[in-house]
Amino acid sequence: MTTQQTEGVARPAGRPRSEKAEKAIIDAALDLLGEGIGVPELSIEAIAARAGVGKTTIYRRWSNKEDLVVDALASLKPPIPPLHGASVRDDLVTYLRVVGEESRHMRTRCIMNIAMSAWERHPRLAERFQAIAIEPRKAALRAVLQRGTENGELRSDLDIEMAMAILSGAMLWRTKWSGENAQLPGDLPEQIVDEALRGFRPR
To answer: For the domain bounded by 88-200, which CATH number is listed?
Structure first.
């Protein structure tokens, strides 16, 4: 029998997938994490019960709990729109706006904090989440900065990895550590980008 590989799980060819069931499973996993249940304590049985499906329904889609948790966490990350703007500044603002909106959601932050506390005990989970949810974003940002160094918008000797850390770190610092009730300016992405570009642009 041939198989199709979907989300890292082999399943029989031609088996219909239920988007409704998958969403219920993902939502159940996120709800349980959001209620404070850590990854080590989270069980397929509990997820199935919360989602209203059988365990076999979950195992048809995910071969283990870690793969399910990775896909659930990745669903919290909104996709970065194509970054092919008229300028490096426009693309950087677009990127940081998505990161900023994501960081403001308390439920998302709570779930991610709980999951990250299990990274050491579940290194495979951390590695897969890095590959699925983090590396594509880093690659998109890296490409924008690289394009800027090549077309003259940015310094040719710019340390791109450091520039990435400066941009992302500034947004996370303002959105995550300013306090729940902090009133952040609507043009925060523009402020961060414009300040960073003072040092990133050719002298």
So the answer is: 1.10.357.10
**Measured between alpha carbons, how far is residue 192 from residues 46, 47, 53, 92, 170 in Å?**
43, 40, 45, 9, 7
Average pLDDT over residues 186-191: 93
> Is residue 94 pLDDT above 90, yes or no?
yes
Is 4:10 a contact under the CB 8 Å cutoff? Answer: yes
pLDDT tens digits along 97-154: 998 887 777 778 788 888 888 888 888 888 988 898 899 999 999 999 999 999 999 9
According to DSSP H, which parts of the chain are helical?
Answer: 19-34, 44-51, 55-59, 65-74, 88-104, 106-116, 123-129, 135-151, 160-176, 188-200
> 3-74 and 88-200: same fold?
yes
Domain ranges of the chain: 3-74, 88-200
- Look at residue 47 in the predicted model and tell me its pLDDT: 96
Amino acid at 195: E
CATH level 3 topology of 3-74 = Tetracycline Repressor; domain 2 (1.10.357)
Q: What whole-number distance in Å separates Cα of residue 42 and Cα of residue 203?
A: 53
Phi/psi at 202 (5° precision): -60, 145
Helix (H, G, I), strand (E, B) or coil at 119: coil
